[in-house]
Design a protein that fits this description.
This protein has 3 domains: 7-138, MgtE N-terminal fold (Alpha Horseshoe), CATH 1.25.60; 145-246, CBS-domain (Roll); 278-331. The protein is 58% helix and 8% strand. It is built from 18 helices and 6 strands. The protein has helices spanning 7-18, 22-28, 34-42, 46-55, 58-67, 70-78, 82-91, 94-102, 106-114, 118-128, 135-138, 152-162, 187-192, 217-226, 247-265, 278-304, 307-312, 319-331, and strands spanning 145-147, 172-175, 181-185, 211-212, 231-235, 241-246. The strands form 2 sheets. It has a 3-stranded mixed beta sheet. Strands 4-5-6 form a 3-stranded mixed beta sheet. Helix 3 packs across helix 5, helix 7 (82-91) packs antiparallel against helix 8 (94-102) and helix 7 (82-91) packs across helix 9 (106-114).
Amino acid sequence: MNFKITSEFLALLQEKIEDKDTRWIKKNILELHYADIADIMDCLDNTQAKYVYGLADDEAQADILMEVDEKVRDEFIASLSNKEIAEQLENLESDDAADLLGELPDDQQEDVISKMDDEEAAEVVDLLKYDEDTAGGVMQKELICVNLNWPVNRAIVQLRKQAETVEKVYHIYVVDNDDRFVGVLSLKRLLFANTKTIISDLYQAKNLISVKSSDSLDTVSKTMEKYDLFTIPVLDLQNKLIGRITFDDVVEFIKEEADKDYQMASGLSEKIDSDSSVWRISRARLPWLLIGMIGGVFGAQVISGFEGGIEKVPELAFYIPLIMAMGGNIGV
């Protein structure tokens, strides 16, 4: 059943926050799906949202932070110290952490990175060097991979260690001794194999689908759509496995592109939101309004050249708005 936010519920929650009733909040708020918690936080002021957020565990905080409205998230991040930001980034997947870190000023980025765990910081910094519109810019470093020369029992031990940092496992990637991508392995086949069997005897090496870190997001989305993939491995120029892209990152890109197309069709020259000011909305429409005005003036000049014909056959004037309306529909 879908959760619905009502004014009565919000009023009760705000009262519980003021009373610092953590028991009620944990039972009635934090047991909800993280997307519902994010929606609730969008309806609270920054202080109230921060209090609710602080009661969640680390895993839930990571999911909630990436689900809240972008404006709310920016205000929330701005209210944290650099040490607190570093702690939050360590809870996120590497691609999400890189996105948030990239939005900070350069001097603040350096300070936040210096306060992060060395291994976590290295992964995030590595992602920041890629352009945000490429596969490298949206990939995450967390993945499951095994060496083709490992026996099954060692692979399972390594899988358990790697799974601690991977939220969802779609594929087990197989690499050689130089970390070059050579194939994929199903979890079912790994678990049912003899513990002494070598991975090279189990993995699939045919029809492998991957992308390069420099490939555009448009290429990535079309590739994943064509082959109906939930995730796709990302390789460097030496075919070394360096990350993976999941379908939720691609869906986000497709949504952004659809929003751009819709806004362009609506005559908007820049991105606007539902809460944007009247001035920003007017500014976004201004270029197309000016083009429309110039076209109207030009059309009036053309019509003025046929005044004599219209005087003789006044009925022709009835077709002018029809033709202009059809021209507008064709343009859209």
